[in-house]
């Protein structure tokens, strides 16, 4: 639990230091818009070739000489999700807002919500995204193997996604 609290504090500090961050003060916090209450800005729309529905990315940390990973905030509007995919060196998801699902190939989908941390092992086929009626935002920390951090596969079928939302 201490690790999670420290990580949350670090993420909040980073959010206040990034240019264009949505972590801004307001004179009347009860009238904050959704964008102003978000930890990070919504970002740029992600391609339909890897995502179903409307998903957006705000890059936070790029791979460089010090970090063999990338970190970004991903916003999934209601019903949006990734295609099936895997990561050669694994991935960590930290849900910062909303509700969604995470599913590994051959296993039952797991509901995920704000505050959940998902540690995805290397080369594990999976997908993640928002529930059908709510958006979901997570921070994704994705490790690299060489220059590769993801292997994209096929889309999650509407039938399979709808079955998950009926759980």
TrEMBL record:
InterPro entries in alphabetical order: Cupin_2, HNL-like_cupin, RmlC-like_jellyroll, RmlC_Cupin_sf
Domain Cupin type-2: 74-138
Signal peptide region: 1-24
Origin species: Dyadobacter fanqingshengii
CDD domains: cupin_HNL-like (cd02233)
Pfam families named in the record: Cupin_2
Name of the protein in its database record: Cupin domain-containing protein
Signal in keyword set: yes
Record keywords, A-Z: Signal
């Amino acid at each position: 639990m201490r690790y999670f609290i420290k990580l949350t504090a670090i993420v909040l500090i980073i959010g206040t230091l990034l240019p264009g961050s949505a972590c801004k003060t307001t004179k009347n916090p009860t009238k904050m818009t959704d964008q102003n209450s978000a930890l990070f800005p919504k970002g740029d729309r992600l391609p339909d070739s890897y995502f179903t529905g409307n998903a957006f990315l705000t890059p936070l940390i790029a791979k460089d000489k010090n970090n063999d990973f990338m970190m970004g905030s991903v916003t999934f509007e209601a019903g949006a999700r990734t295609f099936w995919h895997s990561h050669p060196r694994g991935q960590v998801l930290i849900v910062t807002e909303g509700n969604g699902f995470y599913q590994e190939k051959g296993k039952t989908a797991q509901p995920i919500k704000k505050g959940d941390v998902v540690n995805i092992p290397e080369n594990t086929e999976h997908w993640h995204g928002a529930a059908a009626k709510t958006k979901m935002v997570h921070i994704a920390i994705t490790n690299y193997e060489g220059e590769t951090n993801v292997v994209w596969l096929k889309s999650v079928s509407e039938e399979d996604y709808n079955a998950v939302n009926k759980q």
